[in-house]
Design goal:
By secondary structure, the chain is α/β, with parallel strands linked by helices. It has a single domain, classed as Rossmann fold (3-Layer(aba) Sandwich), CATH 3.40.50. Helix content is 34%, strand content 27%. The protein contains seven helices and ten strands. Strands 6-7-8-3-9-10 form a six-stranded mixed beta sheet, sandwiched between helices. Strands 2-1-4-5 form a four-stranded antiparallel beta sheet, covered by helices on one side. β4 and β5 form a beta hairpin. α3 packs across α4 and α4 packs across α5. The chain binds adenosine-5'-triphosphate and magnesium ion.
């Protein structure tokens, strides 16, 4: 049987607080197919960001395995994981996380420079992406000159710049009003689908989660497919 695009098996992650260990993930399992958009719901503190950090290779599990596109992340060195992330992963954060001293265009260009794209290709790609997110006139603006929705659109362009196979979005609409949140989300989804990418979307909103192909919930350190209709 072919393995899933993302395969997580029996994942454990605990943090140490003083003398005590505090388990966040307690045997989480999941399979995600290539091209799926999956929403991840769970209470605050349930471990959603922890899980995304393990899937992107920012963090390392205590035990269990994470494989993405047949690459077993737990078998990679830290340097290899950094390279893997730079080439294959796009990240969108709740608070945009743009670099304040760089313009919108420079924020998008950075990942392309790290991936050794030519200057000509970077220029083309940045201009194309600014256009895609409706900010073709704002490339020279700094983040603090942009509205929240505009900053998040720059962050989406940045996350997709290197055409990652996997996009991880950690509450990307949590800091926007409801209408702008849905617009930004629709844009993110449309761009990921156009690129045949896979999207994991962390959200507190059931309305947002319902826009995904599938909903997973994280509760008591384990993942489950959401069945039935309940409110968070
Ligand atoms: N580096 C760390 N050291 C110690 N504890 C941590 C660390 N990172 C996260 N935690 C704890 O692990 C638990 C899960 O955190 P995490 O950020 O993954 O939750 P979350 O589901 O993303 O929450 P939210 O919805 O509020 O963003 C929390 O109780 C948090 O305090
Ligand atoms: Mg979080």
């Amino acid at each position: 049987m072919p393995t899933a695009f993302i395969q997580i098996n029996n994942l454990h992650r605990k943090y140490c607080e003083g003398e005590q260990d505090f388990s966040v993930l307690k045997g989480a399992d999941m399979s995600i197919q290539c091209g799926e958009t999956v929403a991840l719901l769970g209470r605050s503190g349930s471990g959603k960001s922890t899980l995304l950090n393990l899937i992107s290779g920012i963090d390392h599990p205590d035990s269990g395995s994470v494989s993405v596109n047949d690459i077993e992340l737990t078998g990679l060195s830290e340097q290899q994981r950094t390279l893997f992330r730079r080439q294959h992963i796009g990240f969108v954060y709740q608070f945009f996380n743009l670099i304040p001293t760089l313009t919108a265009a420079e924020n998008i260009a950075l990942i392309l420079e790290l991936n050794n794209y030519s200057a000509r290709k970077i220029k083309q790609r940045v201009s194309h992406l600014l256009n895609e997110v409706g900010l073709e006139q704002r490339g020279n603006s700094f983040p603090d000159q942009l509205s929240g929705g505009e900053q998040q659109r720059v962050a989406i362009a940045r996350a997709l710049a290197h055409e990652p196979t996997l996009v991880l979005a950690d509450e990307p609409t949590g800091n926007l009003d409801a209408e702008m949140g849905l617009r930004v989300l629709a844009l993110l989804r449309q761009l990921v689908v156009a690129n045949k990418g896979t999207l994991i979307l962390v959200t507190h909103s059931l309305a947002v989660a319902k826009t995904a192909d599938r909903i997973l919930t994280l509760d008591d350190g384990k993942l489950a497919e959401r069945v039935g209709d309940f409110a968070w």
